[in-house]
């Protein structure tokens, strides 16, 4: 191919990249939502549904406990999101300029990489009556010789579900906030407020938070949507009778009696409504806080129980870190346990039997999971790099509205649109399986890859390219030989993020694979529903290891390969 | 602590700031009430580091020794918010989420009734020729107006001393003159000991006080 032809091809692919990204995100979500509307009103020719009507809704409303399910979904979503946001505010306010904060920052990415299901399994195992926590305290403190009789996980108020959700939402919101802080001149405003006599926490609350919150509003909404519609975490930690609405939707959908799909569609639409209601309640709460706080912001009060709150913040950090550390330890112990009678804190003898018995199945699942994750990530990465490159070539930042589209799969309850996609799959007689699952994963991988890469890509010093052009490099050469190599580390990190997101996906695998595609995550979740803790622990650990390897490579490879290029190393 | 440290002067006592063991800035001086001490030097010489140390924002990468005495307290041991040092930055840094009046209210101490607060803000605005601007969005102000609001915000917090971090460097030449005379006249009026960091000779001239030139350590 000639030089100029290649360059023209490059420009053309870069030009279509943003459109491709939009299409990849909008079409499935919109199509999926459309795909549940018909069946919800009785129309699904593949299952002989031709009569439009409200019959599916009447069946749905006859389901016992429907209102409880809705209430539970709303309550757990709002409580866990509010809890996570308050913790983030407290942490930033009390510890932003302290040394411990650097430790927290280091731990963020590994924490984020932990798949939801693995975290939920770990927390559930830790706090269950016969879990590590009660073993460590028994019998010397509690006097328990037998596992006590409390319901956890699965308590009727969803406390365990809320805890599990918070453990994953907190690092996400913290990371998004850290990225947004420089944009709102947080440091400078904090210093102004402190020289005016405001204690650090009050300075943060009055001088920084009002500017920070608008920047993290979208991630907060994404957290609420996720929490209100999560399936895997709620299956593992949530109450079982009634379950949250999303769990029941999946159950009805997977019911062998296909006629239930009509009602399940109506339920999926209801789920969309529940999520929107949660967002609406939150939004009203925002208005209320803004209204109530306007006088307080400028009343000149410079301290608010600071010492107390700072203690609370460090307490929280240690609690969360202990919780996650102990959960991990618990998983490792369970995976190595043979006979492990109750108050014993340490299983003895340790055995590799659980691992050995899982080997065959686990190896094939590892391969399957990695294959899907690698494909989904590389495809997403290509599209994302194309989008970002087009911003540079055409000197046009994506408009806020386009940014919103990138968030789309995170702002619509997945159970609603994925279910619709399944209906369409059935309608058009497309084979469910590996390819559909990979495309489904891309819906969630692409936004995260974009979020992870965009800042570095946009902020790369434009003078590198200018120098290269002045040395007669073509745009294509600048792209391959200058921009991508300079962005080695951010590209690898974005790949690791995408890989971790894909590994953690449960619902797209379950629904679009029609049960025929199994990954470590679907296996771990279904094992968690059974009784074999040892085997569940093995799969949860495997599920956790895969993203960890990804991040290890993303950080370790450049240190090794670029050891003579100090300025390219990860900081 | 000697007795004459308990007065209103800002006493920088045996201050020695190092970066990984290498001496960066050493200073030992007294700034009398109403006096402006100008610290000058090429960039990278540690002017801003000195200011950050006095204000309480020194980066942990630096190590510092020495005392900062003001009104009988050693500020070096206090958190930034208890030092009562009014710091004027290069940028006005008005809070974008508050109105102009809200920014002034943010600076005002709490020991005022609601009515007194309102009057204090109106008076402060009148003093800088911005009467009736209380409800304005700071983003709609000109650069000079913003700087004046930032100055009043600091003064309303009743500082015991002032620190100026190249406060005029981002203003147009014409505005710079006005702002300088406003800042220095207010400093004399309130009789505040002041440390100014700048690399503009004209700033030092306008301040009219002693000039301390920091040299690179090599």
From TrEMBL, chain A:
Alphabetized UniProt keyword annotations: Cell membrane, Membrane, Transmembrane, Transmembrane helix, Transport
Ranges where the ABC transmembrane type-1 domain occurs: 70-282, 366-554
Example of a GO biological process term: transmembrane transport
Subcellular compartments: Cell membrane
Transmembrane regions: 20-46, 66-95, 107-127, 157-181, 218-238, 262-284, 309-342, 362-384, 404-422, 434-453, 484-507, 537-562
Membrane-topology descriptor: Multi-pass membrane protein
GO cellular component, one term: plasma membrane
InterPro entries: MetI-like (IPR000515), MetI-like_sf (IPR035906)
Pfam name, any one: BPD_transp_1
The keyword Transmembrane belongs to this UniProt entry's keyword annotation: yes
PANTHER family hit by this protein: INNER MEMBRANE ABC TRANSPORTER PERMEASE PROTEIN YNJC, MOLYBDENUM TRANSPORT SYSTEM PERMEASE PROTEIN MODB
Family according to the record: Belongs to the binding-protein-dependent transport system permease family.
Designated name of the protein: Putative thiamine transport system permease protein
Species: Aidingimonas halophila
Automatic annotation (TrEMBL), chain B:
Domain of life the protein comes from: Bacteria
InterPro entries found in the cross-reference section: AAA+_ATPase, ABC_SmlMolc_Importer, ABC_transporter-like_ATP-bd, P-loop_NTPase
UniProt domain ABC transporter: residue ranges: 1-218
GO MF terms held by the record: ATP binding; ATP hydrolysis activity
Pfam families linked: ABC_tran
PROSITE patterns: ABC_TRANSPORTER_2 (PS50893)
Keywords: ATP-binding, Nucleotide-binding, Transport
Protein name: Putative thiamine transport system ATP-binding protein
Origin species: Aidingimonas halophila
